Each structure stands twice: as C-alpha cells, then as structure tokens.
Q: What sequence folds into this?
C-alpha cells in the first residue's frame, strides 16, 4: 500500500463544462476519499428577489442555468401561483409541459454529446448535437429564443402554439426518433464504452435511498421516484406514466436511463399534442402575495427533482425565494460513488452524474 | 401518488430526534433553507414520502443559537448546512463534512442577513398598506357608531320620510351581527356619496 | 454492430445537404417572432413609463420632460416584458438582431409632442 496523496480535480477540467473542484485522496490509483468544493460562481440570485417584483423575477429565475432555463421559470411560476392561489388555464399547462419536455430532450442530448466527447467518440458527439439543434430550432420557432425562452409568466404562458406548429413539432420529433435510435444503439453496444462504464461507480439501491438521491442518478439505482408521477399540471392527464428505472446503479445504467428518458419525453409530447384543449393561455394576476404566506413546490428537471420555496411579505417583492437544485442534493451521492473507484474513472463517474454547477450556485 | 404539501411547526430542541425518526420511517430528505428575519432566522426542513411533502418550520431561531446538524442522519444535508452557515451566519454544529465557513467565498460576511434598502422599502410599503387597511376598518367602525347615535336621535317622531326609513333600517341593522352591519353601512354610505355627487 | 450503423449515418452525410450554413456568406432566415431587439414607434408613444417600470433589467429610461425614450441594448435581455406591458402597442420586438459593435451605446428616441404640432398649426393659421 502506497502513501495517500491528495490530487486536485477541477475547477478547470476537460470533462467539466462548469467549475467544480474535488480534492481526491488517492492511494495506489484508488480514490479513498473525496471532498467536493463549489462556490466559484455563486451569484446570489436568491437575494435579487428583493429588488425585482414577482413578475420580473421570472426572467432572473430562468437565467440561473442555461440548460434548465425552462424548468426554472416553470417551477418559479408554479410556486408563485400556489402562493397567490392562481388557477392556470388548462391549455397553458399543456404548453408549459410540451416546452419543458422539449428542454429535457435538448438537455439529455447535450449531455449525451458531452459524454461521447469525453469518451473520445467525436462522431457520436457531432451527431448528438446535430439532433439537439433541431430541438433548438423548434424553440426558436415557437418562443423566439433558443436557450432562454422567456415564455412562461405568472398566470400562464405568453405565446400560443398553433395547430400547424404543433404538428410540425411532432413531425420533427418523429424524424429525430429514428436517428436517435441509431445513436443510442451505437452507444449502448459499443465494447469500449461498456468496458469503461459497466460496474464503475456503483451506487446500490439502499445507498441511493440513504443519500436521498434524486433524478436519473437515483433511478439508475432503482429508486422509484420521479416528480412527474405526482401528476401535477398536464402530467396528470397522461394515460400512463412510469419512471424509467434500472437496477445496476453503475455508470452504464445511468447512461441507459437518460437515453430512454428522451424517448419517453417524445412520447409525452406526442400524447399531449393529441390531447391539447383549446382556450385561454393566461389569466391576469393582480395584487401581491399576503404577508407571511408560504408555498413550496417540486418539479422534475432534466437532472432530477428541484424544490422551490417562496414566502410573501405583502408587497410585490417576495420575502424569500429558494431553489434547491438536483445537483446540490446529489453531491453526497457523488462523494459516495467516487469512493473506491479508480482515478481514471473519476471523470466518467462525474459525467454520468451530470452535475449542473450553475444551478447549484444560484 | 398524490402530491400534498403542509407546513408544520417544529421546536429547535427536538430537531435532531425528529430527523432520526424521519430516517427510521423511511422519509426522503428534501432540503433545508433559512429565511432571514429581523431578529433571527426561520429554518425550514423538508421531507417527502409517497408524494407528501412536509415542511417543518423552526420559527425565530436566535442568531447566537446552536443548531444541531442532521447530516449524521442525512448526509445530503451537509451542502445546505454549510450554505446556511456561510450565508446566514447560523451556527450549525457537527456537520459531517464541515467547511467551517469556506464553502462559499463571500466578500461580505453573511450576505443574506443584510437588509437591502429595497427590502426595507418593500417592508415599509407593506406595513403602510396594512396600516391603511386597519385605519379604514377603524373609520368604518367609527362611522357605524356615529350613525347608530344618529339613529337613536331619529327615533323621535320625524317629519322627514327619509329619516324615518333610515331609522327603520338602523333598527334592523342593530339586530344583525356587528361586522355585517358595518359592511352594509359602508356600502350605504358609498351609495349616498355617489348619489350626492 | 451499432458502430457500423453510425458509420453508415456519418458516411451518408457526405452526400446529403449540409446541416450547417456557410456563415457569414449565408444566414438562416429568422423565424417570425424571433426576439431580436426592441423598437419604439415614437409616433404612438405617450411616454407613460410603464415599460420602464416593468423592465427587469432596468434597460429602459423614459424622461417625460425631455420627451426622450431610451434603451440600453447592452442591458436589455429581450424578455419582451415591455412589449407586452405597452398600453399603446408602440413597442415592437423586431426579429433582426442588433449589429455587432466595438463600443457601448444607448438608443435614444425623441418622442414628437402631438400638442406642440397642433399648436404650431394653430399659430400658423
């Protein structure tokens, strides 16, 4: 047994698009302990709620993170609506979920491309991002923005999607599905990818429950929880929703779960487009949240459950707004997954967990 | 699975035992947050089980109080406990992975406890609105009393038909419960004003 | 086997129409409703200042005395809150993005005074 050494990992590292620092305690190429450190890009956006009224803050909320922009604006709007007792029209709920699921597809394709790039699988990376571009084009056509959509407001949505556009969304997604199947079958059957991921960074089912993990990271360890199954908003009208689970709990299982979730999102969008009701897309919201009123909310983001909390103080500004993002909840799980792994596997494990540091540091 | 959310109070002393019992019952730890107040903070601990989201609120924790860590039961809490220590200045003891104030690099100590001018203005505005509402209610009550006196005077035989009608109504209102009567009176006053213009 | 299929897909793209465009020689047509920049049609503007109050980025300044409406395009986040709030519908979200520049600037528009115009006409008459 050699002497234990501390190897710093990040905040600048090729596999990490965002700053995350790890102190890896290494003994003979094996990681025996790990200390995560964030806080390089903390922006204090939760404090900004004091300067922006509850209608304006939605534009701040969606700028927490580029990839989860739609999710954050949706989660924030739902929380404020809960706080003020606003009932959102059914069509607005459907449109919100359609955009939210599109953003899940774009997030997972982005992640898949980055993962392929980290494996050294350049052509797969190119194909993933080529497909993602089509989703971004759909965003551009339906909302006027590619990443920051600014389409949700407190009380509904600001733009409608007409029937022709809805049919185009389904047509584009159907075209994407066939090519995506090829990409996924390549990724999941490739021998070198299997060599690097099967049995690496295993989190058992018990451990996942013990560490309160959320999102695809937990579902790969057979934790049967997905906020979408709570049936809130338009999710309640789906004929059937079952979270995608895997029992292995290793890197390969996490890749598999994310790959299947894209297909699940496409199915959800198709079903909602077929069922979408006609009607208003927004209601007027007047007044301000009552003093001392509080509301909480959970929402399934691409990376897992996100928790929102709002407290009013009788004025237009909220007293406190809080977002607990999936990555901060999964940091403990990440430490557990890294313990006992090979130093060379560290980047694979971190990638398959898919941390979003911008979200974590609001 | 049905989603429900509740807010329930919790005492600071029983926090640690509460977390242990939650762990035993198989609840999932969701999050911890702090809300800054004039003299202390509110801490909210959330747990979830089968779609029921329970937010346990510890109200008015004094700034110098020692809060026990629950990261021995739920390791995932270490992130939030370090965060609350760094941003709100709450002393949390025995965190499983303790950064001792170095989790976030902040240029000002405990930035979330600073009350910004905007927040102060918002609070004052809210207080003003509340005060105006209370004053309005008081004024309405006073007016009601005054008109009751007037009604008592009007009980004497009157030459005016209108005054007699008003007296009748006053007598009716006296039988009603006071809050409702005040409302009716306010409505009548408003109507009279409108008619007078 | 999967690698062969991916190889086929990659090989096939040699003969297909490229997914990208030859920027800057070609540009993609902007879809309707793209959020480019905010334009004020000053003839309709009444300088009410609702856009200034609603702006989450404090990009808009309205000076009623000087009859000036100004927007800082470097602060503007193209959220469209002002366009929706405008009671006269004189603010429009233009699909064209602003030109590339080397220094910061502020777009200022002077709002013509409809009263002044009628007064001038009366004086002439």
A:
């Amino acid at each position: 047994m050699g002497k234990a050494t501390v190897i710093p990992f990040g905040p600048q590292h090729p596999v990490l698009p965002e700053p995350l620092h790890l102190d890896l305690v290494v003994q003979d190429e094996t990681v025996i302990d790990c200390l995560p450190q964030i806080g390089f890009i903390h922006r204090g956006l939760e404090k900004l709620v004091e300067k922006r009224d509850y209608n304006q803050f939605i534009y701040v909320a969606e700028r927490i993170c580029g990839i989860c922009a739609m999710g954050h604006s949706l989660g924030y709007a739902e929380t404020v609506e809960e706080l003020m007792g606003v009932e959102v029209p059914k069509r607005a709920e459907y449109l919100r979920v359609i955009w939210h699921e599109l953003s899940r597809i774009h997030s997972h394709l982005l992640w898949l491309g980055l993962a392929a790039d980290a494996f050294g699988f350049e052509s797969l990376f190119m194909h993933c991002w080529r497909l993602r571009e089509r989703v971004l084009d759909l965003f551009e056509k339906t909302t006027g923005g590619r990443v920051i959509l600014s389409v949700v407001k407190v009380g509904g949505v600001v733009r409608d999607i007409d029937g022709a556009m809805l049919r185009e969304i389904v047509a584009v997604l159907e075209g994407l599905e066939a090519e995506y199947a090829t990409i996924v079958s390549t990724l999941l059957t490739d021998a070198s990818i299997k060599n690097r991921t099967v049995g690496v960074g295993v989190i058992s089912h018990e451990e996942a429950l013990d560490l309160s993990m959320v999102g695809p990271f937990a579902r790969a360890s057979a934790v049967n929880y997905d906020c979408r199954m709570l049936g809130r908003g338009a999710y309640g009208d789906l004929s059937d929703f079952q979270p995608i689970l895997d029992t292995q709990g290793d890197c390969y299982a996490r890749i598999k779960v994310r790959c299947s979730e894209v297909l699940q999102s496409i199915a959800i969008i198709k079903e909602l487009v077929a069922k979408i009701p006609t009607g208003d897309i927004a209601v007027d919201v007047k007044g301000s949240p009552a003093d001392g009123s509080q509301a909480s909310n959970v929402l399934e983001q691409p990376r897992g459950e996100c928790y929102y909390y709002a407290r009013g103080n009788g004025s237009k500004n909220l007293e406190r707004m809080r977002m607990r993002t999936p990555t901060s909840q999964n940091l403990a799980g990440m430490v557990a997954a890294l313990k006992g792994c090979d130093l060379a596997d560290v980047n694979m494990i971190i990638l398959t967990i898919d941390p979003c540091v911008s979200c974590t540091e609001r | 699975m049905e989603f429900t959310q509740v807010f329930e109070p919790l005492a600071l002393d029983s926090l640690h035992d509460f977390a242990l019992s939650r762990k035993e019952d198989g609840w999932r730890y969701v999050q911890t947050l702090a809300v800054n107040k004039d003299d202390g903070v509110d801490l909210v601990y959330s747990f979830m089980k089968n779609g029921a989201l329970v937010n346990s609120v510890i109200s008015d924790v004094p700034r110098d109080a020692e809060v026990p860590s629950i990261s021995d039961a739920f390791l995932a809490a270490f992130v939030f406990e370090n965060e609350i220590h760094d941003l709100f200045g709450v002393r949390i003891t025995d965190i499983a992975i303790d950064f001792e104030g170095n989790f976030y690099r902040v240029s000002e100590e405990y930035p979330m406890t600073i009350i910004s001018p905007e927040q102060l203005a918002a609070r004052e505005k809210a207080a003003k609105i509340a005060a105006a509402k209370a004053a309005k209610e008081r004024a309405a009550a006073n007016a009601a009393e005054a008109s009751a006196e007037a009604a008592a005077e009007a009980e004497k035989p009157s030459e005016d038909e209108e005054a007699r009608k008003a007296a009748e109504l006053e007598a009716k209102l006296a039988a009603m419960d006071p809050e409702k009567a005040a409302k009716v009176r306010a409505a009548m006053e408003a109507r009279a004003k409108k008619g007078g213009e | 086997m999967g690698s062969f299929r991916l190889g086929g897909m990659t090989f096939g793209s040699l003969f297909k129409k490229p997914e990208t465009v030859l920027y800057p020689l070609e540009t993609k047509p902007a879809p309707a409703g793209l959020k480019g920049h905010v334009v004020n049609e000053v003839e309709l503007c009444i300088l009410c200042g609702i856009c200034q109050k609603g702006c989450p980025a404090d990009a808009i300044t309205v000076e009623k005395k000087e009859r000036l409406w100004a927007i800082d395009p470097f602060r503007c986040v193209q959220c469209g809150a002002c366009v929706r709030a405008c009671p006269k519908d004189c603010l429009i979200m233009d699909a064209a993005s602003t030109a590339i520049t080397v220094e910061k600037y502020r777009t200022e528009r002077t709002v013509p005074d409809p009263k002044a115009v009628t007064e001038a006409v009366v004086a002439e008459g």
In short: Chain B has a mean pLDDT of 76.
